[in-house]
Each structure stands twice: as C-alpha cells, then as structure tokens.
Amino acid sequence: MFSILxxxxxxxxxxxxxxxxTNLGPASVNLGTAANFAILAxxxxxxxxxxxxxxxxxxxxxxxxxxxxxxxxxxxSGTFATSSQVTGxxxxxxxxxxxxxxLETAVSDMQAAYSDAASRVSPDFSELGGGAxxxxxxxxxxxKWTTGVSVGPADVTISGTSSDIFIFQIDGTLNITSQSSxxxxxxxxxSNVIWVVAGVVTANPGTHVEGxxxxxxxxxxxxxxxxxxxxxxxxxxxxQAVSVHIFIRLFLILLSLVGHPWCRRxx
Length: 267
Ligand SMILES: *[C@@H]1O[C@H](CO)[C@@H](O)[C@H](O)[C@H]1NC(C)=O
Ligand SMILES: *[C@@H]1O[C@H](CO)[C@@H](O)[C@H](O)[C@H]1NC(C)=O
What we know:
By secondary structure, the chain is an alpha/beta fold. The protein has one domain (24-251). Helix content is 21%, strand content 35%. It has helices at 4-19, 99-118, 247-259, 261-266, and strands spanning 37-41, 44-48, 52-54, 56-59, 67-68, 73-74, 81-83, 86-92, 125-126, 137-138, 141-145, 149-151, 156-159, 166-170, 174-176, 182-185, 193-197, 201-203, 208-215, 219-221, 226-233, 236-240, 243-245. The strands form three sheets. Strands 5-2-22-20-18-15-12 form a seven-stranded parallel beta sheet, with no helix packed on it. Strands 1-4-8-3-23-21 form a six-stranded parallel β-barrel. A three-stranded parallel beta sheet has the order 10-13-16, with no helix packed on it. Helix 1 (4-19) packs across helix 3 (247-259). The radius of gyration is 18 Å and the shape is globular. The two termini are 13 Å apart. The site of one 2-acetamido-2-deoxy-beta-D-glucopyranose has 6 residues, from loops.
C-alpha cells in the first residue's frame, strides 16, 4: 500500500534535499520564537465560536482578559489556558512566570521580523497589478506595493520550489475577497511566504490564505476562512468561526514520522 505516510516521507526527503541548494528570491526572514505561535497578538485575540486553531496562541503585553470567546480553562500551573477551539495552549502576559517573559521575547522577535521584512530594498516587482493581484501567478522575489492589495475574485497562485522565498511588502491594507484563495504551487512552503502589511488585513468569508502574516495593525478572518501559517499581529486578531493551522507543527510531526521505525523502513 502506497500510503499517505509514504508520500509525506518522500516529500520531506525532497524538502531536506533541496533545502541545501540556493533559493530564488530574497533572504529568508527570521521569525525567532514568534514562529512557535500560530497566532501572536499584542492587544487582543477574539473568536466567535466555533473556530479551530492548531498551534499556540499568545497575547502580550495585554493579559488574558483580552482573550474573547474562547471559554478558557486555566491550567493548575497558572502558566497557560486551554480552549476547545485550540489544539495547543493559550498564553497571556497576565499568566504565571515564565509565560510573561516567553511572550515578551516572542513579541520582540515578531517586531524585529516585521522591521526586517518591511525594510528590504530593491524590490523585484513594484506596484504589480496596481495592487489587484487576483488571477496572477507569482514567482519568487521581493514585491512592493505603496497601496493596498486585494486578492480576488480569481485566486492568486504562489509558484516556486520548497526553498524559494517570497516577501510581499504592502503599505496599505490586504483584502482577500470572499471565496478567493491564495494557493501554493510547485512545493512552495507557507513558511517561506511572508506578507508584511502596514494596514489592516481582512480575509473575507470563505477565503483561504497561506503564509506568515506580519501585521503592523489588526488581522480579521471572517466566517469560514481558513489559514495555513502564522498570524503575527502588532494589534489584535479577530476570528469568526475560522480554521488556522500552523505549519511548523505539521513539519515537526513529519520529522517525527521520519524518525519513526516504520518510516525508516519504508521511506
Ligand atoms: C483590551 O482590554 C481593554 C480593557 O482592559 C479594552 O479597553 C481594550 O479595548 C481591549 N482590546 C482588545 C483588542 O480587545
Ligand atoms: C479593503 O477593504 C476595506 C474595507 O473593508 C477598504 O477600506 C479598503 O480600501 C480595501 N482595500 C483594498 C486594497 O481593496
């Protein structure tokens, strides 16, 4: 039986193989410990149930009172909470040590990553499509818009290999039009797709987004939106019955599969 696990193992070996070769596009952006969070925000994270989040959710400097809609259960250690909507932990600056320090470092790493990504110069593509990028196929590179950007009504395809890097610098807002998607092609990894956005980010109902959103303002995902990646916002994150999955977790699961005796035999 050529199982899904087999495919997973093969793609992982392919990924490890090409990781050493030179990438196309700019140098990667170091997220530091912010990469450990599916969602990291500074002023609040809200959900209108039922959302589904895989990965940890962090909030700092505001405290747990600014988690809204999660029906939190505080762990007896006092260092984190859980929620039926989160496969992972919720951490807030108001929780017991070492959580505040962990979050302070993660937020500082998030801000540094934003500054790095936003300050890259000499874009390969400037003002592409006048900010209307629905229907385009984007190749590796540094992209710069001094305006807002909208995805849709046709999907946007991000095309390249697993080692290629994409940085999208957006001075205005990022809007994903209802029912439109950002899709990856050719083995591109969501962790190599960086959206660095100065204005608010809105994923409208039924949309799909891939990548790391480094937002200077807030990020809102409306009903039925799905996201593969991290939302790292310097203001708040608002979710309405959405699904957010962090790829780093999946990657760690894949690594553990490769280490598994069954996989060593068959991969
Ligand atoms: C965070 O909580 C404060 C009150 O403690 C409130 O004024 C503020 O609006 C909240 N912000 C968010 C984004 O929820
Ligand atoms: C995104 O939507 C907001 C309102 O929802 C609007 O003010 C803004 O101009 C839109 N931006 C783009 C680039 O479409």
